[in-house]
Request: fold
Amino acid sequence: MSFQIGGDDLDTSRSQFASAAAARRQKVQDAKTANANLPIDKVRKACLARGVCGIKSIGSTFRRYDDNGDKHLTPDELRDCLQDYKVTLTEEEFVDLVDSFDKDDDGRINYDEFLLALRGPMSKARVSIIEKAFQTMDKDGSGVITIEDIEQVYDHRKHPKFQTGVMTKKQVLEEFINSFETDKDAKVTMGEFLEYYAGVSASIDNDAYFDLMMRNAWKI
Reply:
């Protein structure tokens, strides 16, 4: 037994397929629009508007407001931080933001968790290559990069200001490490390294290009 599809039936099938595809595309777009309006995404957008160091920089601001060093902020402290970054949220949005991170209802926000959400999703491949780059410097596996570690992988002699005598070897190495760390303690943790590259990652759509950029930069 054989079946034949007439011209009208074929046109109908094509039309239904096109409609279904359009509906799927609209659903994806609606989801993106909804996410773009979330308070955390508004904060992320404001940070990224400051360049690739925006997320790292707001992390430094959080730590500056954390007087007792317990890695928590009060809602008022968080509000002040966000105002510094020209983040405009309605009162309802701000309350939603606080509620989403004040999970134990004690009126405090764990800013490490906040920064983790702020980085946004990175693919496993990107996180993996960032970790490999960190490990190329963390020779002793301590989880912290020091100037001594940097000295083994970064040739200060190629820095223009060293070549002209404007900066010493120590100053060149400190400048390099300060581009990643936020506490000004001359040490870089994995978290700080991820914060820096979260900003870089957000500006690169293609995973393969991000991977190539990291491998070239760190000779992986």
